[in-house]
Predict the structure.
Amino acid sequence: MWTLLLSTTFISWCYLTTIEVYALSFMVGIISFYFLLDIKLLKKHPIKLGVLHALASLFHIRYVLLGIIPIWFLGVKYKHKMIFLTYFLTAALIFLGSYCGIIFFSLPHDKDLIANIITFIFIMMQLLQRPMLNDVIN
């Protein structure tokens, strides 16, 4: 764990060179990281930590990767599936709900966004119909 912390220190320092932009984001991310490492707190307050993790992820998308910690502790190592589901659904609903709200409220004003969404759906439907991709999925 210490190796991981030391290896990310330099990256975080480079990330914080524009301190006026990323200081609050970094602080919320580090607080979220600290609390997600505490397995007792994670078991006791999965909803609060899900909210904290979702807020950190809304500050910067790289904090989504912090979700590996509760997946490992709750899902793999200790097999607390209900606590993990509570945490995960809380974080996912806040995070994805925010992005869906942004898309919903910007749709009437942004015609390019509507075209991009329709194009993306069309491309995904075309990819799913290819036999090569269906073999990989199945």
